[in-house]
């Protein structure tokens, strides 16, 4: 029974997070979502009814004690809330910004009706509360909890790749006292967090803070070093590493396989976003890494990468004084789009246009080899395919053309094969993904583990971290038994 004069938490309206005005943000790469202040966080946290059996934690790939950290926020115990998060998640400020919560923890909140495709608007904004607590820890320079085990301090582990999976393994192992070295092929660490996600979604100071926390734990980074080229996997083991974790990611772009795809100004999303995010192409000529930007841009795809590419392209159009004209082309309807609802909403607010039930058929260009037009067919939806979504079926004779002097193809990535191609002992499947024991994440090579997008294809940041935690537990268990 509710005390007299109190409001039933189930009837409280969700606290909408503050955002930069769309007219200002669409010409800037500054952060869009501004997060909760203290009063807003307290108000949103008070909506949590503290379920006896909190289903939200089961929706979290790393098993955060969501009920506990939200309760600590209601009591203004922000340090404790931060430490509760860090027990399961080394990077709350990152995950609070980029996790697709509407498909994970918020979807399993009791305020979401069972069977819903994604979270209801009434579901607790768990991710924004996580961000609030994570940023509190960052802004107050809270100490990172360390549980060093003297038995483990004599061992060392190599990590190939410094993306979400590699970072998570580094944090888990270093906190136990294990000597960790991360090998990164690029000049800066972070993997997809740095080259794939634009700073208007994940500011670089947040990413750098979380990476610095690994250094404080003792993790060592070796940049500009490609395992599979500069050194082989067996060489790492021969050098005395007790175990190796592969967080190689998915770095090979998928293309449409249609005529004209090799014309100039047809980019893969991987190349386009890497130029913009990793090499600051949007700041040209301040940074000498330009990227071509068209007057009529078409982004093909319906996932988060497509939203990132479209929003980044439109911003560069505005920064360069061009009239914004960026369109997302998708073969299904908006309901079937795998992108976060928030990102779709933000893209639309900023001026990105959408054209649904459209199948790209052929690019055509001018005499100099630059793309100028895209011919498409209208689609209808058929029976569900292997993804569970209704299959798009092109309608014969429904051809139409759109202006397109730049295209970005964002239809997925395949496994990075630089290492696997030269390591025949490492078993892979027909998609070139590394095959692992699902319980331990160990590969076909003894003492070699893998996780993230190199295992089972593209996934989310938090899913990669979930696999990393499994691998970390298995590595620690193995080392303790040596």
How would you describe what is shown here?
The protein has three domains: 9-139, Fumarate Reductase Iron-sulfur Protein, Chain B, domain 2 (Orthogonal Bundle), CATH 1.10.1060.10; 156-251 and 415-481, FAD/NAD(P)-binding domain; 255-412, FAD/NAD(P)-binding domain. The strands form five sheets. It has a five-stranded parallel beta sheet with strand order 5-4-3-6-18. A five-stranded parallel beta sheet has the order 8-16-9-10-11. Strands 12, 13, 14 and 15 form a four-stranded antiparallel beta sheet that branches. The chain contains 15 helices and 18 strands. The protein has helices at residues 22-25, 38-45, 55-58, 66-74, 78-88, 92-98, 126-139, 164-175, 192-195, 204-217, 233-238, 269-278, 304-319, 341-350, 461-481, and strands spanning 18-19, 33-35, 156-160, 179-183, 220-222, 243-246, 252-253, 266-268, 297-300, 326-329, 353-355, 358-365, 371-384, 390-394, 400-403, 406-409, 413-414, 448-450.
């Amino acid at each position: 029974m509710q005390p007299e004069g109190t409001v039933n938490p189930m009837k409280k309206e969700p606290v909408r997070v503050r955002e930069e005005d769309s007219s200002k943000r669409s010409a800037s790469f500054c952060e869009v979502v501004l997060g909760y202040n203290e009063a807003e966080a307290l108000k949103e946290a008070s909506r949590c009814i503290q379920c006896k059996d909190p289903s939200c934690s089961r929706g979290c790939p790393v098993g955060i004690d969501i009920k506990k950290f939200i309760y600590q926020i209601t009591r203004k115990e922000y340090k404790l809330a931060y430490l509760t998060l860090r027990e399961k998640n080394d990077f709350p400020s990152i995950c609070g910004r980029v996790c697709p919560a509407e498909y994970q923890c918020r979807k399993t909140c009791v305020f979401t009706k069972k069977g819903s495709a994604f979270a209801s608007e009434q579901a607790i904004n768990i991710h924004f509360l996580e961000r609030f607590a994570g940023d509190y820890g960052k802004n107050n320079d809270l100490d990172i909890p360390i549980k060093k085990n003297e038995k483990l301090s004599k061992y060392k582990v190599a990590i190939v790749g410094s993306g979400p999976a590699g970072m998570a393994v580094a944090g888990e192992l270093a906190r136990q006292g294990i000597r960790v070295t991360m090998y990164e092929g690029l000049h800066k660490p972070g993997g997809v967090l740095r080259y794939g996600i634009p700073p208007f979604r994940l500011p670089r100071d947040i990413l750098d803070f979380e990476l610095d926390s690994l250094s404080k734990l003792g993790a060592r980074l070796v940049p500009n070093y490609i395992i599979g080229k500069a050194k082989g996997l067996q060489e790492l083991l021969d050098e005395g590493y007790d175990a190796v974790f592969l967080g190689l990611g998915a770095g090979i772009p998928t293309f449409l396989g249609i005529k004209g795809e090799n014309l100039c100004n047809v980019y893969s999303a991987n190349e386009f976003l890497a130029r913009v995010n990793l090499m600051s192409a949007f700041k040209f000529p301040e940074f000498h890494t330009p990227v071509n930007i068209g007057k009529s841009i078409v982004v093909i795809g319906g996932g988060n990468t497509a939203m990132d590419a479209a929003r980044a392209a439109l911003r560069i159009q505005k920064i360069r004084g061009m009239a914004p004209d960026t369109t997302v082309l998708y073969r299904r309807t908006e309901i079937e789009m795998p992108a976060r609802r928030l990102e779709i909403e933000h893209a639309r607010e900023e001026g990105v246009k959408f054209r649904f039930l459209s199948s790209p058929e052929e690019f055509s260009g001018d005499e100099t080899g630059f793309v100028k037009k895209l011919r498409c067919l209208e689609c209808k939806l058929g029976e569900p395919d292997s993804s569970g979504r209704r299959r798009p079926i092109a309608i014969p004779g429904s051809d139409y053309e759109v202006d397109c002097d730049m295209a970005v193809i964002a239809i997925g990535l395949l496994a990075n094969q630089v290492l696997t191609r030269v390591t025949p002992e490492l078993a892979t499947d027909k998609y070139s993904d590394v095959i692992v024991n699902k319980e331990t994440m160990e590969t076909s090579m003894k003492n070699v583990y893998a996780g993230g997008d190199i295992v089972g294809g593209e996934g989310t940041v938090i899913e990669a971290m979930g696999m990393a935690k499994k691998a970390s537990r298995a590595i620690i268990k193995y080392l303790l038994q040596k």
